[in-house]
């Protein structure tokens, strides 16, 4: 399974960029957070987490390491699971008032993204919260310069947020997820300690694992960077630059690990090997999509999470409705891969085989079904809901879901096939149930 050749087209992009995040990986790595904070010049830090993680050992380890290193620590433990514009604004107010010279985040992608947003709005205040938010929902204003140093310490094997320049939230007034994307949002360092996953419930491991799977598959099957218009010399290439030889390497290896270990990691909390490998796959996929970009399943997921009616995923905190991010992505993904496969059948076949699909010969026109079948098999083996219907949606919701997803143009334009409103509605309809 080799990375494939990229054909250069007349007028198309000829250059891709690689931004490799600085990562420290391994058991007990969190104990080095204090020394790393000092090396980045931090003297007074905001320590971000959510109310649940703040009670656990990883948070205490980081807090102790910082204090032992002589760093002044002020904790903010109100990061929302699935952040909103309201929770981001509260975190930003805390950051502005605290006059911090560094940020540490401990938790899932929600805590890491909250720290990114707080750092941004405290460092570069703006008159309107939506100024920096991706167009067309927000103003798409470029971030004017670097932020304060940020050390991200993920505790779930999923988001890869420690590797990326993206932060995601629910915009409550419009009932849709959106985000901010900039190289300046990428953390200064990610400290990835696989010991953090030992206590995660099975459903959380599954949701996080499907986020990893979607990162890797979407990035591997994204529109190739050579099919974008050529970037003028001196201009900044988008973070979602498309599939490229560098991202392919990380994505394929992440998929191979998932195919081998995901079911084991969900089934047995005591399977330390499987959970450690899932943590490494999450980091690899973060590196991959941080240099390529995801596409339609993630764009559709923002509508699925933002418009949720009453469904509340098991083992997630709170009493209100919630479709966790990895779940909101995967319920639409099989339908999307079926549709997209004709643009690059060999990539969809390679993705399925990396995930452990059988090695039988597959014709190009069977590639979409082949990949979708493997993803659905993993969903069923890990107790994921049966498509959109499994999280409470019905045919009556298709129009609202379509409009919510169509707003995610940054992601949709990275898809290997054009996607308009009619396509999106058909994809949501196909995703209502799989078995």
Secondary structure topology:
Elements: E1 23-25, H1 33-39, E2 44-48, H2 57-68, E3 72-76, H3 85-98, E4 102-107, H4 109-123, E5 150-154, E6 166-171, E7 176-181, E8 189-192, H5 202-221, H6 245-267, H7 272-290, H8 296-306, H9 325-330, H10 333-340, H11 345-354, H12 367-381, H13 398-406, H14 409-412, H15 421-430
Helix pairs in contact: 1-2, 3-4, 5-6, 5-7, 6-7, 6-11, 8-13, 10-12, 11-12, 13-15
What does this structure look like?
- This protein has 2 domains: 165 residues, 3-Layer(aba) Sandwich (Rossmann fold); 230 residues, Dehydroquinate synthase-like - alpha domain (Dehydroquinate synthase-like, alpha domain, Up-down Bundle).
- The mean pLDDT is 94.
- It is α/β, with parallel strands linked by helices.
- The protein has a 6-stranded parallel β-sheet, with helices on both faces.
- β6 and β7 form a beta hairpin.
- The longest helix is centred in the middle third of the chain and has 23 residues.
- The protein is globular, with a radius of gyration of 20 Å.
- Helix content is 42%, strand content 9%.
List keywords for this structure.
15 helices, 2 domains, 435 residues, Dehydroquinate synthase-like, alpha domain, Rossmann fold, two-stranded antiparallel sheet, 42% helix, 6-stranded parallel β-sheet, single chain, alpha/beta
Q: What's the quick description here?
A:
The protein has 435 residues and is of the alpha/beta class. It has helices spanning 33-39, 57-68, 85-98, 109-123, 202-221, 245-267, 272-290, 296-306, 325-330, 333-340, 345-354, 367-381, 398-406, 409-412, 421-430; strands spanning 23-25, 44-48, 72-76, 102-107, 150-154, 166-171, 176-181, 189-192. It has two domains: 28-192, Rossmann fold; 201-430, Dehydroquinate synthase-like - alpha domain (Dehydroquinate synthase-like, alpha domain, Up-down Bundle).
């Amino acid at each position: 399974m080799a990375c494939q050749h990229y054909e250069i087209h007349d007028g198309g992009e000829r250059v891709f960029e690689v931004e490799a995040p600085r990562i420290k990986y391994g058991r007990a790595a969190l104990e080095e957070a204090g020394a790393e904070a000092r090396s980045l010049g931090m003297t007074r830090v905001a320590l971000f987490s959510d109310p649940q993680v703040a009670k656990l050992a990883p948070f205490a380890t980081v807090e102790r390491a910082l204090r032992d290193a002589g760093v002044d620590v002020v904790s903010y433990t109100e990061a929302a699971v699935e952040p909103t514009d309201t929770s981001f604004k509260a975190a930003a107010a805390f950051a502005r008032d605290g006059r911090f010279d560094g940020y540490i985040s401990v938790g899932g992608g929600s805590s890491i993204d909250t720290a990114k947003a707080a750092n941004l709005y405290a460092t570069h205040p703006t008159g309107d919260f939506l100024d920096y938010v991706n167009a067309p929902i927000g103003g798409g204003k470029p971030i004017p310069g670097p932020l304060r140093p940020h050390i991200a310490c993920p505790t779930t094997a999923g988001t890869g947020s420690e590797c990326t320049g993206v932060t995601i939230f629910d915009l409550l007034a419009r009932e849709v997820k959106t985000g901010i994307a900039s190289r300046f949002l990428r953390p200064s360092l990610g400290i990835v300690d696989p010991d953090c996953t030992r206590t995660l419930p099975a459903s959380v491991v599954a949701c996080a694992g499907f986020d990893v799977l979607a990162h890797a598959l979407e990035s591997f099957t994204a529109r190739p960077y050579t099919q974008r218009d050529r970037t003028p010399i001196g201009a900044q290439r988008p973070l979602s630059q498309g599939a490229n030889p560098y991202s392919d390497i990380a994505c394929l290896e992440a998929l191979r690990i998932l195919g081998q270990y995901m079911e084991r990691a969900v089934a047995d909390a005591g399977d330390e090997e499987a959970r450690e490998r899932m943590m490494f796959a999450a980091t690899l996929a973060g590196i991959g999509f941080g240099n390529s970009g995801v596409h339609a399943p993630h764009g559709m997921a923002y509508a699925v999470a933002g418009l949720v009616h009453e469904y509340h995923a098991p083992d997630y905190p709170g009493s209100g409705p919630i479709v966790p991010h990895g779940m909101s992505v995967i319920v639409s993904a099989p339908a999307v891969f079926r549709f997209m496969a004709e643009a690059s059948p060999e990539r969809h076949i390679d993705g399925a085989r990396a995930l452990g699909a059988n090695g039988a010969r597959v014709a190009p026109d069977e590639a979409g079904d082949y990949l979708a079948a493997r993803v659905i098999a993993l969903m069923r083996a890990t107790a994921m809901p049966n498509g959109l219907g499994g999280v409470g949606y019905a045919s009556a919701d298709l129009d609202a879901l379509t409009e919510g997803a169509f707003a995610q143009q940054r992601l949709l334009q990275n898809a290997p096939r054009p996607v308009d409103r009619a396509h999106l509605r058909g994809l949501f309809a196909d995703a209502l149930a799989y078995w």
